[in-house]
Amino acid sequence: MDLAELRGVRVPRTLDEAWLQPGESWLAGGSWLYSTPQPHLGGLVDLTGLGWSAVEPIPAPTPEPHSDEPGPDEPGLRIGATCTVAALLAATAPWVADPRRASVAALARRCADAFLMSFKVQEVATVGGNVCLGLPAGAMTSLAVALDARATLLTADGGARVVPVADLVTGPGRTDRRPDELLRGLEVDAGALAATYAVRTLSLTPVGRSAAVVIGRLDAPSGACTVSVTAATDRPVVLRFGALPGVDELAAAVAGIAEERWYDDPHGAPDWRAHLAGVLAREVLDELHAGTREAAA
Question: What integer is the mean pLDDT of 213-226?
Fold first, then answer.
């Protein structure tokens, strides 16, 4: 769609040049921005001109001197806000052959496919843009929440704020990002990249938006388990357990999600979504339990 009211697009080369003037909005991929009229906007600031890396390792921290605690031998991951979905998939695709990271590579692909987008849109849509939209069915939000990713938000005065993505998205189309804050990127710890994941998604129609996305995660070696629910709820919900829960424990945790959290739109009624989330959570749990049995065999 043409944005006929625009008077110009700025392409900053430094962060100092990237801050908004009245009537401007940041542009990353533009797959949503250009999909609907924006009559209130007079200009765009194209963040791709900053040259942020799409995906880069976070160096493992150096152990404290004289510490008996071993330092991690694997780096974490930083995903730039302007990283496209296609670039993220390209960066994680080689992990399929790595037993330590094959599960997270499959998770990234499943979440990207939850967009139900064409390959052309995947080449444009950005991870940061999808998270900042705050859509209940934001597929990159589902991925980031499952990874316990943290969002780094910058301000023009040089300040920075770090917020878990699970807390950043606060409701349909709403986030905790302040108007003067710019999302720099997402950080993921090494432990999340080595965890085992199970994913279930379902839509009311074969090509509709996701009505529910449930992702189970089993950490090694701690054995801690998390189950995240997105798309079915108006904001991400994360259920945490010290170990793989039993069926009744998980069912009680899902049933304990506040009634007002279940989302209501043409893609599904709240009571149906609540029931669906319980069914998918049980399937996720069964898959994680089966994986632990196979590993022990």
Answer: 96
Closest by CA position to 77, among listed 165, 174, 149, 157? 149
Taking every pair of Cα atoms in the chain, the longest distance, rounded to a whole number of angstroms, is 65
* pLDDT for 56 beyond 90: yes
Range(s) of the domain holding residue 174: 76-191
Backbone angles phi, psi at 255, to 5 degrees: -65, -25
- Rg over alpha carbons for the chain, rounded to the nearest Å, is 20
The string of DSSP letters for 50-118 reads: G---SEEEEPPPPPPTT--SPPPSS-EEEEETT-BHHHHHHHHGGGGG-TTTHHHHHHHHHHHHTT---
**How many Å from the N-terminal Cα to the C-terminal Cα in the chain?**
56
Residue 177 lies in a domain: yes
Q: What is the pTM of this model?
A: 0.92
The pLDDT, as a whole number, for residue 70 is 42
256 in Cβ contact with 266 (< 8 Å): no
DSSP for 107-163? HHHHHHHTT---HHHHTT-BHHHHHHHT-TT-HHHHHHHHTT-EEEEE-TTS-EEEE
Same domain, 187 and 200: no
Write phi, then psi, for 201 (nearest 5 degrees): -130, 155
- Residue 73 binned pLDDT confidence (cut-offs 50, 70, 90): low
Q: How far apart are CA 43 and CA 54, in angstroms?
A: 25
Residue 291 within a domain: yes
